[in-house]
Amino acid sequence: MVVEMEVNNGENTTNNWVPIMKKLHMNVIGEKMKKFPKLTCRTIWRVGKEDPRRVIHSLKVGISLTLVSLLYLMDPLFKGFGSNAIWAVMTVVVVLEFTAGATLCKGLNRGLGTLLAGSLAFLIEYVATKTGHVFRAIFIGAALFFIGATATYMRFIPYIKKNYDYGVVIFLLTFNLITVSSYRVDNVLKIAHERFYTIAIGCGICLLMCLLIFPNWSGEDLHNFTAAKFEGLAKSIEACVNEYFSDDEQQKAKENSSDLEDPIYNGYKTVLDSKSFDETSALYASWEPRHSRHCYRFPWQQYVKLGNVLRHFGYTIVALHGCLQTEIQTPRSVRAMFKDPCIRLSGEVAKALKELGDSIRNRRHCSPEILSDHLHEALQDLNKAIKSQPKLFIGSKNNTNKLTLATVISKGQSCALNSRRVSLSSVKTDTSALLDWKSKLRGGSSTTHENLKLRPTLSKIAITSLEFSEALPFAAFASLLVEIVARLDLVIEEVEELGRIAHFEEYNDDEHVVEIDRKNSRPLPNQLPTQDSGD
How far apart are CA 453 and CA 465, in angstroms? Predict the structure, then answer.
């Protein structure tokens, strides 16, 4: 009886929790529904604020669709084109892109593919009509197989896949539609003409909108985006070095912030993720007309090469950033000995990167003194500071109590059982403890689970117990900082090569002073250019 009462009480408790959980769930859904309109408006505003050109492009697409829909809405135009006017609407939806280069690439591919497919389909139809009804069906089927297989195989050719893949797809679609429909429809020539005209009208409206009304050039986007990369890398280097030598309070505040607010991460992330954007923008820019005052062909592929060099440069900054997140850190008292030369060195590197970015943005050659004497002086000061503290890096030669890995491991067992931290002075024992520890491991399987827990701890103790381990993390940090200076030469060479091929203006010291004053008088951009889906 008592058991039944306890069971009934348990069931009643469960039944009481069910409506409560449903009510809480409905409250959560209600709160989300209340926040949804505000969140949607905030997102729409943020997207337009990041790049106002998106608003203009949306209006251009709306105007284009309105214009092309007149082929359906106006009776005289509809009588001329009929139901084939829908192809003009489809062309505007598919072809009109964010930049002029992307629109030209798709529009010309679509027009060229339609023209070639229509011409070849008429040729196939002309030959097929000279034969009998049965042989005509066989000939059309064989033509479809041969043309379809050949065109599909051509899409695997790298040059065609890169530049004309969309045109080949349109060619296949149009050719099959005309050829297959010609077997059952008598007046297929008229239908093909009307479709070609409507597609031409759609492409013409797209080209008019993208070239003459607030055009967005892929080449300009690539140019400005490349210049902004240097500023992002410069901010990352300065922020990384400043954070490495920051005090404890600043470090705690940094740990509480997320990666989205990390200036180091945001600076190099855009550079590392820019490969697809660079290649696509360079491809679309090659389709654009030469709208600048110079009529020569601009070397857009050189921007792609410069982007590859900047990514390799960014990998070093990623490694430098990793030094801030390692398990073993150099004490701040030791870091303070090398703070001034490291900060000055990072400042000179950041200054050189900003100068390179400004030279690309203004289409001029960089200063001949971009690698100033201050950079070499900072390197020499860092070298002298490291040489002035030899014991931190090479250890004491007169130390008779040399540590071995065996003593570290043997002492590590007892230390790990009591705590997970061990000091350098506490690790002093002989090899007998190691032998005893090994014999205990062979004694049975009861300690297997415990040993698995100790292995990572022992490896950490073995590293932290080395005599000069406190300076090893800083040695890695300093070597990466020097590696950044070495890779800076490669970046400068690539920028100079770009300036030579693109015919940048010669460096003028007076104009450079004016640009510095103008830059100091205006606020710096808060973020790097964003990548749009249309690009």
Answer: 19
Question: What pLDDT, in 10s, does the model give residues 9-31?
Answer: 555 555 566 666 666 777 777 77
- As a whole number of angstroms, the distance between CA 496 and CA 356 comes to 9
Torsion over CA: 148, 151, 156, 162 (sign): negative
Q: Which residue has the tokens 């130390």?
A: 399
Give the Cβ contact number of residue 412 at 10 Å. 26
Rg over alpha carbons for the chain, rounded to the nearest Å, is 35
Distances 12 to 4, 8, 19, 206 between C-alpha atoms, Å = 12, 6, 12, 69
Residues ≥6 apart with Cβ < 8 Å to 312? 487, 490
- The string of pLDDT tens digits covering residues 322-332 is 888 888 788 88
Candidates 164, 119, 124; CA nearest to 141 is: 124
CA–chain centroid gap for 290, Å, is: 28
Q: Which two tokens stand for residue 128?
A: 């097929």
Residue with tokens 């117990």: 465
- Distance CA(166)–CA(151), nearest Å, equals 12
pLDDT score at 294: 52
Which ranges of the chain have pLDDT less than 50? 1-7, 396-435, 437-438, 441-442, 444-467, 513-528, 530-531, 533-535
Where does residue 179 rank: exposed (0-12), middle (13-18), buried (19+ CB within 10 A)? buried
Write down the residue that tokens 């004016």 correspond to: 514
CA angle 120, 126, 128 (to 5 degrees): 100
How far, in Å, CA of 246 to CA of 335, rounded? 10
Q: Is residue 412 a contact partner of residue 458, using CB atoms and an 8 Å limit?
A: yes
Nearest to 232 by CA among 343, 357, 324: 357
Is-contact 368 508, C-beta < 8 A?
no
> Rounded CA gap, 474 and 336, in Å?
11
Residue 403 is predicted with a pLDDT of 41
Q: Which two tokens stand for residue 309?
A: 């060099």
* Residue 46 contacts residue 526 (beta carbons within 8 Å): no
DSSP state, 219?
Answer: H
Cβ 144 vs Cβ 84: under 8 Å: no
What is the Cα–Cα distance from 290 to 295, expressed in whole angstroms?
6
User: Dihedral of CA 332/338/344/350: which sign?
Assistant: negative
CA atoms within 13 A on the CB side of 138: 5
Q: What is the 3-state secondary structure (H, E, C) of 422-480?
A: CCCCCCCCCCHHHHHHHHHHHHCCCCHHHHHHHHHHHHHHHHHCCCCCCCHHHHHHHHH
